[in-house]
From TrEMBL:
Coiled coil: none annotated. The keyword Transferase applies. Residues 18-119 form the Glycosyltransferase subfamily 4-like N-terminal domain. SUPFAM superfamilies: UDP-Glycosyltransferase/glycogen phosphorylase. It comes from Ectothiorhodospira mobilis. It holds the Pfam family Glyco_transf_4. This is Glycosyltransferase involved in cell wall bisynthesis. GO terms for molecular function: glycosyltransferase activity. The keyword Transferase applies. The lineage of its organism: Bacteria, Pseudomonadati, Pseudomonadota, Gammaproteobacteria, Chromatiales. GO terms for biological process: carbohydrate derivative metabolic process.
Length: 361
């Protein structure tokens, strides 16, 4: 099958350090190539891939040495995809909804994975208008704000099992990995660790928009002997951090669409202590891969019960439900279903093709 993967340009594929969507696109692309498909990746020029790369901008926008307009470059990307569209059997977009007005008038089969939060008021009007565009959720919970969208399946994110080393001998620390932002619960993680009296190692990027939060709410804690901030980490650093931790703290304060770091921890055998929000109850299996809790008191109490979690069981559940190979196979199933409908008029908003392709909560 000839497949086009269209990635955001904010980070390279894969990202050098932090980056969720682009990392998933990388894992999916590599798994599809390994399965024998002809894949073309439309991404930034500093991307690394086994597929054929169509570089759009010389380097990823977030870390670029030259300030660039993201909208301009994403429009240029869509223009290049449109020029080459007839070469492919299927187009897979990971770039939100910018392409909707153009692609509803084109007959090349396409689908869009929505990787972000969908509880924003303006999106209801958008998806009411573009109810013919086939979209994929990364968790069932993610769909709830947009029941009018044309959901064709749910495919949970996956990561390569070989990238993460199982560890049965953790050190005496907790881990936090993500963005230094209020919604990711960075300050809450610090408070939980301090109350439990356990060392916390924090690896996170600090975006410009979160700089004030970091300076005002996080930096004052960094002098405490239990709190260590190590900045952004690459794939190797992430593997070492998560594998060596007694648990990952994930005290989110927003409807997390998926939470890639949870399955990264599971791949290392590391349990997760996560707040019951967004996709957490779908991704986690309470009491098996860690604990799903409802606040800081329960999180502190859960730290005292970590010895009851079997790290081998964490790894086994990851291998069963969250591998990159499984993710690619489920997307190929959706691709084939769409190919069977190539004669449908472009503006025909029909019923969904099918529901959840993965384990449902």
């Amino acid at each position: 099958m000839k497949i086009a993967q269209i990635a955001p340009l904010h980070e390279s594929v894969p990202p050098r350090t932090y980056g969720g969507t682009e990392r998933v696109v990388h894992y999916l692309t590599e798994a599809l190539v390994a399965q024998g498909h002809q894949v073309t990746l439309f991404a930034s020029g500093d991307s690394r891939t086994s597929a054929e790369l169509r570089p759009i901008v010389p380097e990823a926008l977030r870390l670029s040495r030259t300030r660039r307009d993201p909208l301009a470059w994403h429009l240029l990307q869509l223009n290049q995809v449109a020029r080459e569209a007839e070469q492919f059997d299927i187009l897979h977009f990971h770039t939100d909804f910018l392409h909707f007005p153009l692609w509803r008038r084109m007959r090349v089969p396409q689908l869009t994975t929505l990787h972000g939060r969908l509880d924003l008021p303006d999106l209801q009007a958008l998806f009411a208008e573009f109810g013919d565009m086939p979209v994929v959720s990364i968790a069932q919970h993610q769909r709830e704000p947009l029941p009018m969208a044309r959901w064709i399946g749910t495919v949970y994110n996956g990561i390569p099992a070989q990238n993460y080393t199982f560890r049965d001998d953790p050190q005496d620390y907790l881990a936090f990995l993500g963005r230094m932002s209020p919604e990711k619960g960075a300050e809450t993680a610090i408070q939980i660790a301090l109350r439990a009296g356990v060392r916390l190692r924090m690896a996170a990027k600090v975006d410009r928009v979160d700089r004030d939060y970091f300076d005002e709410r996080i930096r004052p804690h960094l002098d405490h002997p239990l709190i260590e901030f190590i900045g952004e980490v690459d794939e190797r650093g992430k593997n070492e951090l998560l594998g060596g931790a007694r648990a990952l703290l994930f005290p989110i304060a927003w409807p997390e669409p998926f939470g890639l770091v949870m399955i990264e921890a599971m791949a290392c055998g590391t349990p997760v202590i996560a707040y019951r929000m967004g996709s957490v109850p779908e991704v986690m299996e309470d009491g098996v891969t860690g604990y799903v809790v409802d606040g800081p008191d329960a999180a502190v109490e859960a730290i005292g019960r970590l010895d009851a979690i079997d790290r081998h069981a964490c790894r086994r559940l990851f291998e069963t439900h969250f591998s990159a190979r499984r993710m690619a196979e489920e997307y190929v199933t959706l691709y084939r279903r769409l190919l069977l409908q190539t004669t449908r008029p472009a503006n025909d908003a029909t019923a969904p093709l099918g529901e959840g392709m993965s384990r449902s909560a």
